[in-house]
Task: structure prediction
Amino acid sequence: MEFFCFKGDPVWNETDERLREITIENLEKLGFIKKEEVIDGMVVRVPKAYPLFEIGYKELCKKVYDYLALFNNLHVAGRTGMFRYYNMDHAIESGLDTAEFIIQKGNGPAADDEKELVLAGSEECDQHL
Result:
């Protein structure tokens, strides 16, 4: 479960135990689990988990992507790696696509169209902003 919040706001400052309780209650209401099935839970607070876009960010990102493309064994994915506003389903899909790419192609030099595989998913996310 993901809670949208900012460092220092009421959700951020809530106790781990209460956040676990809220999560379990919501998952149970949705019919995904039963409270008694939960063995454990963990809370991870990630400051600045979503990118904050500024004018000119696309040009700066392109410079970074071009530099990172020089590394044949580096695969960039996810919200932070792609500097994209990914919903959780897109973030997971990006990771799975990257893992599948690594499994299928290995981590040797990638052709330009293969490198675009991971970058391509980021364009779809522009539709979800």
Remarks:
- The radius of gyration is 18 Å.
- The chain has six helices and no strands.
- Confidence is low (pLDDT under 50) at residues 113-118, 120-129.
- Helices lie at 10-13, 16-29, 57-68, 78-82, 88-105, 112-125.
